[in-house]
Amino acid sequence: MATAIIGGLQRFMLTGVVNGQAIGLNSTVPAQNTTAHAYNIKMVSNVTATVDSPEQIAFNGADAEQERLFFGTNRTSALEITLDEVDETLISFLGGTTVDSTTNSAMPIWTAEANESDLPSVAIVLAQRGRIPASGAVTWFNRVYPNCYVLSAVTAPSYRAKTTTTLSVLVNPSSYLLGGLAISSSNLGISDGQLSHYIIRSDYPLALSAFVKNGVATGFSTEYLPKASDVDSSASGNMMFDAGVVTDPSAFSTSNGAITGLDAGDGGEIVNMLYETEYVPTS
Questions:
Q1: Per the domain annotation, does 56 fall within a domain?
Q2: CA separation (Å) from 211 to 64, 170, 177?
């Protein structure tokens, strides 16, 4: 790849995770034979990151520093994300609460206050659009934070001011890539098998859908149409993880988003499809 010019933030994606496997806006694995999708929007106005530096110990002698050892690595430990929208479903999920549509179905009740002991583990993807100057080709840089906890807050009403949502993100080291592949099984060369974030470069922005097997069904459908029908998960814009293992389906339709040819497997196993898209809904 040639040197790239990377632009501003374009997309925000979030999903609940279990051992790196996406499960949509759920804090636990959904029922078998259920499809869930990552939350995906473009209304992001600002992101700041806190990066922790490794500890250093200097060894001195002969009136000079002789050697310096580093312990740890540069890792992102926190993010502050501002969304220019307020979504009651997202905020309730992040806070470990629910939207109450039972007390009065015509007037849902929800809160931005959190059950701090019940915060779900989530993965966050921040997508930036870039360009390769040598060729002029457009490319996308997707920053993946696979193991996070999030506290959300909605700004107070103010005269002639928009209301925004602030996400305070605690970024934890993860042993898994998004999709459930163990980092130790990847070719990233991470010595301790953990990282706080990584980057996926793609030709189009990404979406993600999850399916929980029931031991019978051999297919499901994504939320958006994929850009390509290529099913080579090791060399295309579509990458499927079956129980954390990179696997190829038989087919992935660009006309309706249907994925077929899965191994029926065992009930409760999770399939993740990470795919390039232009966000055309499948229905």
A1: no
A2: 60, 27, 17
